[in-house]
Automatic annotation (TrEMBL):
<dbReference type="InterPro" id="IPR035976">
    <property type="entry name" value="Sushi/SCR/CCP_sf"/>
</dbReference>
<keyword id="KW-1015">Disulfide bond</keyword>
<feature type="domain" description="Sushi">
    <location>
        <begin position="36"/>
        <end position="96"/>
    </location>
</feature>
<keyword id="KW-0768">Sushi</keyword>
<feature type="signal peptide">
    <location>
        <begin position="1"/>
        <end position="38"/>
    </location>
</feature>
<protein>
    <recommendedName>
        <fullName>Sushi domain-containing protein</fullName>
    </recommendedName>
</protein>
<dbReference type="InterPro" id="IPR000436">
    <property type="entry name" value="Sushi_SCR_CCP_dom"/>
</dbReference>
<dbReference type="Pfam" id="PF00084">
    <property type="entry name" value="Sushi"/>
</dbReference>
<feature type="disulfide bond">
    <location>
        <begin position="38"/>
        <end position="81"/>
    </location>
</feature>
<dbReference type="InterPro" id="IPR042372">
    <property type="entry name" value="IL15RA"/>
</dbReference>
<keyword id="KW-0732">Signal</keyword>
<dbReference type="GO" id="GO:0042010">
    <property type="term" value="F:interleukin-15 receptor activity"/>
</dbReference>
Length: 116
């Protein structure tokens, strides 16, 4: 970055200061890198729509799977707004749920107790 020389007083003191353009570029880069809020979070297949469009930094949001789908075991439905934008650790997968209750590991149907 080339700096502009400016004579500060009648004495022979020269200071190098950035030009207005250079300051604007620097401010723009800082705004791009860090934010005070996040826009809509990334879309995830088979999740309910997120109606809120702006989230403050440090806000944690939980996705919900659409009706007929459930969160796959071992995946997280949480995402957090950070100063650099939404964290990238989101690994949510919504899978189709079937009628009745199932054991996650074996997919064996468990009879509904009390209902006939």
């Amino acid at each position: 970055m080339r700096l502009t020389k400016l004579r500060v007083s009648q004495h022979q003191h020269n200071m190098e200061i950035p030009s207005a353009f250079q300051l604007l570029v620097l401010i723009g880069l800082l705004q791009y890198s860090y934010t005070t809020s996040c826009g809509p979070p990334p879309q995830v297949e088979h999740t309910k729509p997120i109606e809120q469009t702006v989230f403050p930094v440090n806000h944690t949001m939980r996705y919900e799977c659409e009706h007929g789908f459930k969160r796959k075991a071992g995946t997280s439905s949480l995402i957090k707004c950070k100063t650099t934008g939404w964290e990238s650790k989101l690994n949510l997968t919504c899978i189709e749920s079937r009628n009745g209750r199932y054991r996650a590991e074996s997919k064996t149907k468990i009879p509904n107790r009390g209902k006939q």
